[in-house]
Amino acid sequence: MKPTALVAGNWKMNGLMSSQAELEALAGMLKDGGDADCDVLICPPFTLVSAFASAGYAGVAIGAQDCHAAQSGAHTGDISAEMLRDAGAKYVIVGHSERRADHAETSALVQDKASAVLSEGLKAIVCVGETEAERDAGRTLDVVLSQVAESVPAAATPHNTIVAYEPVWAIGTGRTPTVADVADVHAALRRALIERFEDAGEGFAILYGGSVKPSNAKELMAADNVNGALVGGASLKAADLNGIIEAYR
Ligand code: PEP
Exposed (0-12), middle (13-18) or buried (19+): which is 161, by Cβ within 10 Å? Predict the structure, then answer.
């Protein structure tokens, strides 16, 4: 099975109801730009998931950026995967490096969150990536391989789980690894997925994320085992995200 490519926008803590105009613009660009050989996803803040999903922008799925591992209960301020499904989300990002760093999320917790996502019939985007210090110490593969082993649940399949490789030092910095470095990490992730899930390991989409923009998307997306992009800053403007999607037209 060949992975289905995905271009996913992570809006982080950005966006208001007025941002619906960007979604409308994106849907228009997808229509006018012709078929792209990838799925398109926007993950706005929780506050916008329901409004965006119920507005229904053609060609754009709506997802969320995190969830709690439990289905319900005494967790003030948290949101469950069931609530996100109810609000119309189709995907949930788990284990983003900002969650791992700002909220001390471990891979074990990320795995529990991913399991909660899969239990609701949603797709989990499981993020992994090394810090700059880990990279400088030559530990990139050790770090991402242990994160993927510990964060991806046993119930994962190519239909319900996507892996996103996001070097922490490349997020929001304008810096990217070389295409060869990206391909090396993605090849190692692919080998690990095949080792664990046998033939199904071939079918998981592995996204690259970290300062993807229209000007570098084509070469990054052309690297072996890169099956799409997780995009932060450049996903906030429809024209920029459409410029990245262009890599799949
Ligand atoms: C991200 O936060 O997932 C990300 C990739 O951000 P940016 O594209 O802004 O580097």
Answer: buried
* 140 contacts 134 by C-beta, under 8 angstroms: yes
* Residue 62, helix vs strand vs coil: strand
What type of residue is 220? L
Determine the atom of ligand 1 nearest the C-alpha atom of 96.
Answer: 3
Does this model's pTM top 0.90? My answer is yes
**CA 165 to centroid of ligand 1, rounded, Å:** 11
Please check whether residue 26 lies inside any domain of the structure. Answer: yes
- The overall longest dimension of the chain from CA atoms, in Å, is 47
Provide the residue range defining the domain that includes 41. 6-248
CATH number at residue 113: 3.20.20.70
- Report how many domains make up the chain: 1
Residue 17, domain member (yes or no): yes
Q: What is the pLDDT of residue 1?
A: 83
Structure confidence by residue, pLDDT tens digits, 190-214: 999 999 999 999 999 999 999 999 9
Cβ < 6 Å from ligand 1: which residues?
10, 166, 171-172, 209-212, 230-234
Closest CA to 123 of 70, 86, 160: 160
Contact criterion met (CB below 8 Å) for 235 and 10: yes
Angstrom distance (rounded) from CA 147 to CA 190: 14
Structure tokens at 113: 């969150």
Instruction: Classify residue 1: in a domain, yes or no.
Output: no
Do 166 and 210 touch, CB atoms closer than 8 A?
yes
Q: Where are the alpha helices (DSSP H) in 88-178?
A: 97-102, 107-119, 132-136, 140-151
Q: Residue 82 is which amino acid?
A: E
Give residue 170 CA to ligand 1 midpoint distance, Å: 8
